[in-house]
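In this supplementary section we document a worked example of the pipeline. Step one takes a protein sequence of length 165 as its only input; no multiple sequence alignment statistics are reported here. Step two produces a three-dimensional model, which step three serialises into structure tokens for compact storage. The input and output of this example are shown verbatim.
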Amino acid sequence: MKQPLTESIHHYLREIYKLQTDEGKASVSALARRLHVSNASASAMVKKLDALELARHERYRGVELTEAGERVAIEVIRHHRLLELYLAETLGLDVDDVHDEADRLEHVLSEELEARIDRALGYPTHDPHGDPIPDANLKWPPAKPLVRRRPTRGRRVGKPRGSPS
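The serialised model returned by step three reads:
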């Protein structure tokens, strides 16, 4: 039986994915900065991800996720954003407090509970911060037009307009 991936592996895959998306590539040093670890620690994990066939690393060219690594990264992002929305809308946590809670829970969320949360929230496309949530097939929703919003500090997020109570 395959060993489950660790929380640390999830964090690395997610951050490599974000770096690739934001900057076009992910260097080991940029990854180390994002995760607040030494370059040596980041390099060791990148070698591990390469051995697990979740990422490819070519010296001086950066790190690139494999298809399998990208699927895991997007799944972690999906879990995190669904949890943020669930914590804000259903449990009434302040939007400023949901990130840390979701970060702790995203790694242990079962596929069944993920599906139930998704269904209970009406298959949302964006989290309480406005970030897109990939669907159950790990496809990103169409981009929303940029809308200027007021800060959410101290406010709770309610149900979207037009959604059932």
